[in-house]
Design brief:
597 residues; alpha+beta; 4-stranded mixed β-sheet; 3-stranded antiparallel β-sheet; 11% strand
């Protein structure tokens, strides 16, 4: 298709458009957002039409792709149960205006407003005060409950009810469908008395002209791929929730229920799965679930056509493919989350260094009755804390799946050399999204750290019974101490080598105290030394507290010793793997000395 054919501006009469909508010529896909119907906004919409102001374009996507769509809007049926045609016209933008126009002209049902009639009436006796009048529309356009509300508050607007009885307040739909009858009633009204130029008669003809001649602008998109539709939708709805590929796949894979078919709705499938238990992992993004599904389809269904996890291929996922793998997929995903939570002791997805771990590990567990957890732990720590990014793009996923499937080889053949840089650990700073930050915090969490005051209590837990139970990241050397004792090469205040998990209550109690002070207090507990071990903390800090004195370079010493403890712990986790420790900082110093000489 020529690029000039992709976008086609056009227009259509307002009543023609609404009639075509009722005749099922347009569809509203389910990824459109819920309509917020407000009386005042609908009146203002019709005031713009009445004044022949533009309403903005309605965006229509023409495609042969069948998506799940709303079968009703405002109580009006716009699609049959098994609606099929060669080309569909989906409203990408304009659902709010469409619903307001349809229900105000043809009546209908408004969600949450049982018994309310949204049909709009017009008072032919209301005149505009001036060209910029922006208030008279409130009296010109009326709902039935503003004319006769005896079924609601038992109040009646006598004046308006009399006008209605006399034919001076008329239903918009009647102007469209029974103009001759309404006109005759106006002509015979005593105030009009056959005066062709009487304001009431002029007003009625104007309303008829509005309904007959007002045209709505459309922009038709054709030959647009699904991924592009997502981008277009996001750009025209910048203030709202972006449309993503999951919404498209949900709509595309939908299959309605019938007497012989239970139907299929991916959103319900995922939502029901998330209710299995209260694990935080179950609440990962729907897009993550979609990519897991794509990998499992690709790896376990021959000739699936799913060659990658990009939107281009996610769009090709078929309903029957999801149904084929879903039962086993659920078990694999739950085993993946269980591995993170109960084997590694990582109590939430905020600690997972790479979100692609969900994909590779779920595929490892898929129909695997004898998983090797020791191997899987090595796989996790090797990739999480390696000096290089090893799982940061879709191309890496294929290599990882091959690695996980090649378990028959020994560790060195599978993993190669593990390289870690001391200076990377020194410079590691807290970041909610950084890979190294999450990986180090995962290692701290894996050690099942105990609270310093309540030494029998785990800090990272599944369930919180008190608001003070939730884990905090505590600075061992408070930020004011670091600021006052900063060396030229000192690390920043959020260095992960200076952080430990504590309960909120203990963290608040310590506040910004000097380590000598609060360590000495907690050291009164005979279990405290064991607790220090659970945080991978140097015992040197205990020695200083007991001596009531720290050297001037205490922070540097502490940091270096903690780096060593982290590396030692990593070597334990990676037993059998060729581990090489380098120090780029030391190398830089040596280079500087060499150059100086």
């Amino acid at each position: 298709m020529n690029f000039t054919d992709r976008i086609k501006p056009t227009d259509k009469g307002i009543t023609t458009y609404l009639d075509e909508l009722k005749n099922q010529n347009y569809q509203i896909p389910t990824f459109q957002r819920d309509v917020v119907w407000e009386e005042e906004n609908v009146k203002k919409l019709w005031d713009s039409i009445y004044k022949f102001y533009p309403l903005g374009s309605i965006l229509v996507w023409k495609t042969d792709l069948k998506l799940q769509n709303h079968r009703q809007i405002g109580g009006h049926k716009i699609a049959a149960e098994n609606f099929t045609r060669s080309e569909y016209q989906y409203l990408l933008d304009g659902q709010q205006r469409t619903t307001s126009l349809l229900t105000s002209l043809y009546g209908g049902k408004i969600e949450g407003r049982d018994g309310f009639n949204p049909s709009l009436y017009i008072d032919l006796t209301i005149e505009s005060e001036d060209e910029t009048d922006d208030e008279s529309y409130k009296k010109r356009f009326l709902y039935w409950n503003e004319i006769d509300d005896r079924d609601g508050s038992f109040k009646r607007n006598i004046g308006r009810k009399n006008k209605y009885d006399e034919g001076l307040i008329v239903k918009l739909l009647e102007v469209k469908q029974n103009f001759e009858t309404i006109q005759q009633k106006i002509v015979n009204h005593p105030d009009v008395a056959q005066q062709y130029n009487h304001p009431y008669w002029v007003e009625l003809r104007k309303v008829q002209q509005v309904l007959s001649n007002y045209r709505i602008s459309f922009i038709e998109l054709k030959g647009i791929k699904v991924a592009e539709v997502c981008q277009i939708f996001e750009r025209i709805n910048q203030a709202g929730k972006p449309l993503d590929i999951f919404d498209i796949v949900v709509a595309k894979t939908f299959r309605p229920k019938s007497e012989i078919d239970k139907g299929f709705y991916l959103r319900d499938l995922i939502d029901d799965f998330k209710k299995v238990n209260n694990s935080n992992y179950l609440q990962i993004d729907n897009f993550d679930y979609l990519q897991i599904i794509a990998i499992l389809i690709r790896e376990n269904i021959d000739n699936s056509g799913i060659h990658n996890i990009t939107p281009r291929y996610l769009n090709d996922i078929k309903t029957e493919q999801i149904e084929c793998i879903w039962d086993s997929a659920k078990k694999a995903i739950l085993k993946t989350f269980d591995f993170f939570e109960n084997t590694l002791n990582l109590k939430g997805p905020q600690l997972i260094p790479y979100r692609y771990f969900y994909l590779t590990i779920a595929n490892y567990f898929y129909k695997n009755d004898n998983p090797n957890y020791d191997f899987l732990k090595k796989y996790f720590w090797f990739n999480s804390l390696h000096r290089d990014d090893l799982l940061s793009n879709t191309g890496d996923i294929n290599q990882h799946i091959s690695l996980l499937n090649g378990e028959k080889y020994d560790n060195e053949q599978r993993f190669g050399r593990f390289l870690i840089d001391k200076d990377t650990l020194r410079k590691s700073s807290y970041s909610s999204k950084g890979r190294i930050s999450r990986a180090i915090l995962s290692l701290f969490s894996h050690k099942c750290p105990k609270d310093w005051k309540y030494t029998d209590r785990n800090v990272n837990v599944d369930n919180l019974f008190f608001s003070t139970d939730k884990p905090n990241l505590h600075h061992i050397f408070p930020t004011n101490y670091i600021t006052n004792n900063r060396a030229d090469n000192q690390l920043d205040n959020n260095s992960l080598m200076n952080i430990a998990y504590l309960t909120q209550l203990t963290n608040l109690e310590i506040s910004d105290k000097n380590p000598l002070e609060y360590i000495k207090e907690y050291d009164q507990n005979p279990n405290f030394e064991r607790v220090i071990d659970s945080h991978l903390l140097p015992k040197q800090i205990l020695t200083w507290a007991r001596m009531d004195e720290m050297p001037t370079n205490a922070l540097d010493q502490f940091m270096e010793e903690r780096v060593e403890l982290v590396i030692e712990e990593l070597k334990k986790q990676l037993t059998g793997i060729n581990t090489e420790v380098i120090d780029t900082k030391e190398k830089e110093i040596q280079e500087e000395l060499k150059n100086a000489l």
